[in-house]
Amino acid sequence: MPSNESKLTVVGAGLVGSLLALYLARRGHTVEVLERRPDMRRETLDAGRSINLAISTRGLHALRQVGLEEEALKHAIPMRGRVIHPVKGELAFQPYGKDDSQHINSLSRGWLNKFLMTRAEETGRVSIRFRQRVTHADPAAGALTVLDEATGETRELRDAVVFGTDGSGSAVRQALQSQPDFRADSETLGHGYKELTIPPGEGGRFQMEKHALHIWPRGTYMLIALPNEDGSFTCTLFLPWEGPVSFASLQTPEALEAFFQEQFPDAKALIPGLVEEFFSRPTGHMVTVKCAPWHAGGRTLLLGDAAHAIVPFYGQGMNCGFEDCVALDALLAKQPDLGQAFREFERLRKTNADAIADMAVENFIEMRDSTADPRFLLEKGVEKV
Ligand code: FAD
Predict the structure, then answer these.
(1) Can you state which reaction this protein catalyses (predicted)?
(2) 96-135 pLDDT, tens per residue?
(3) What DSSP letter does each residue of 159-211 carry, written as one string?
(4) Does the beta carbon of 142 sit less than 6 angstroms from any atom of ligand 1?
């Protein structure tokens, strides 16, 4: 384990960076977290990636280790299976397991991120500095160049132990590219995504089945919806960038409304802000990143999306990143040599991360296509709802 005097710097106060800071603090370290965005607890940020997300056993296990699972679950909505919405006809329910104990949970990304930041700070050992963008790094030396976006000033950090949790477009990963043995494959999906809202009904009631992940599978594209605590659902429309039915083909309100009327008539009736939201909200990209090595010189280590960005169709990106924190914590407990600990971390995590990355792409095909196939429905023991 590094000595408690080591300067530990976490780059990125997203979901994984905030949880990692908490884990490191619990081992007695003082941790500085550098986050390029303003503090989301004080300022409303532009709509970013996914309003809610699914947290599963892996992620909950990581929260349990630091005593946060119970509070997180108070804000989560169990989803016991998928509700499939055909173009016409009855809805079908595909349970996730034999009984209700097997479920995933819908949780607000913003709430979870704020919660983790606050709990990390409450240890008294974590300071999160906002509007601090890492622009350059020397991974083997543990050196960072940091731009203060509030003042425009730049400062240099030296001799730090750096944990790069700065997401799929990681600047720390970028810097690792200067290492002779580093390789990275990045594959952008030919689909993008857009978030839309089904507001709560009268008196805050859910306008569809609350305890389910809703899917409108349509072959090359699909719509999904996850429930929120306030009775609303956040829908995500996944569409190809180009082609006959694509973001490129839906350029006018008329085209969009006609498309929804034809393909998602029940959802259209529940999304009053369809046109406004579709044309004003950003369209998200999705990328798979596989890279190695994740570390340099016992000074720098990548975790979370920075090490292994995956497409969201297994709902496992954050869950895997949380599992990284558990794995690293266990290694730091027994391995005083950081170089060894980082190597062992990569050995333990890389095969799993690569496997889930491939499974996530495969699950896109299952979700958008096979969930609507009658043979698939039969195999899965589907119930009507
Ligand atoms: P991020 O969440 O990207 O956080 C990175 C942080 O680093 C950010 O705060 C960013 O501002 C900061 N940063 C970036 N660059 C710099 C820099 N140069 N200097 C300083 N700070 C910087 N996962 C699940 O487990 N379940 C789901 O249901 C799920 N649904 C998803 C739905 C969608 C549409 C998408 C796109 C993803 C989904 N994911 C899901 C994946 C999940 O969002 C990611 O795996 C998770 O956010 C990774 O966390 P992270 O902390 O590694 O990265």
Answers:
(1) L-kynurenine + NADPH + O2 + H(+) = 3-hydroxy-L-kynurenine + NADP(+) + H2O
(2) 998 888 899 999 999 999 999 999 999 999 999 999 999 9
(3) S-EEEE---TT-HHHHHHTTSTT-EEEEEE-SEEEEEEEE---GGG--SS-TT
(4) no
CA-to-CA separations, 116 to 121, 128, 154, 160, 303, in angstroms, rounded: 9, 11, 28, 23, 16
Cβ atoms of 324 and 303 within 8 Å: the answer is: yes
Fold of 8-57+107-187+287-368: FAD/NAD(P)-binding domain (3.50.50)
* CATH 3.50.50.60 domain locations along the chain: 8-57+107-187+287-368
Residues 6+ apart with CB under 8 A from 244: none
| Ligand 1 center–CA 341 separation, angstroms | 24
Q: pLDDT tens-digit profile of 33-66?
A: 999 999 999 987 765 566 899 999 999 999 999 9
Burial of 249 (0-12, 13-18, 19+ CB in 10 A): middle
